[in-house]
Amino acid sequence: MPLATQMCRQIFHFVAVLCRSEPMLGICVVGGMCALLSGITFSVTAIESPENEFMQSCTRLGGPKVVMAILCVLYLLKLESAGEIKRSPRTCYPIPAEAGWPLRGRSLKGLSNITRVEGSSKDGTYCVRCLVWRPPKEHKPHHCNTCQRCVTGFDHHCGVFGRCIVNGNMVCFVTLIGLLFTGMCTAMVAVSTSSGSYREA
Fold first, then answer.
1. Membrane spanning segments where (predicted)?
2. Rounded to the nearest 5°, which phi and psi values hold at 22?
3. Nearest residue to 179 (alpha-carbon basis) of 34, 24, 29
């Protein structure tokens, strides 16, 4: 098989895998909504309401909103390990005797997290899946079954971005939702204003 054909197949496979991934879905959703809402606002304002000062100011705010949405998405996707409890000697030890299931070949079914080791200073729970000590309940520790890792400050796993939404990236998530509603309101105001000017003409 020629080298060019092999390279094309590998590129096509990479793009296909990327398009099926949750982060790519998030990029497409945010990019599509930015393009759609900005396009509606810009085109309607430029064509039908060029003299409307309010709409011109809304249009000028469109660019910064798109930039902010892009930055929020990059932050969400960059911080893949936001809130993740990473494995280290500090988080893994002491290993409870009950957690010796990998050595004995036991299944994870029916196993529950271990609360405390006698004589240990560890306060939280020991996750038998990640094999790490998690902080107490007030830090909202959680084992995400989708990501297969323990995080702190857990809110939910976002299927659009493929990330756990935790305290560390909640600001970006809420900002994206706020920008979506702001963009929709701006587009609706632009359309309704242009419709009124069109009827008057």
1. 24-47, 59-77, 171-191
2. -65, -45
3. 34
Name, in order, each residue with C-beta under 8 angstroms of 12's C-beta and a sequence gap of 6 or more. none
State the pTM of this model: 0.73
Q: Which two tokens stand for residue 42?
A: 């810009």
| Backbone phi, psi, residue 100, to 5° | -80, 20
Using the 8-state DSSP alphabet, how is residue 161 labeled? T
- Tokens representing residue 171 in the block: 């600001």
pLDDT digits (tens, 9 = 90+) for 65-97: 888 998 998 888 876 678 888 888 888 888 777
Coil, strand or helix at 201: coil
pLDDT tens track for 112-161: 777 765 555 567 888 888 888 888 888 888 998 888 889 999 999 988 88
- CA dist., res. 66 & res. 173, Å (int): 15
Find where tokens 């000028």 sit: 60
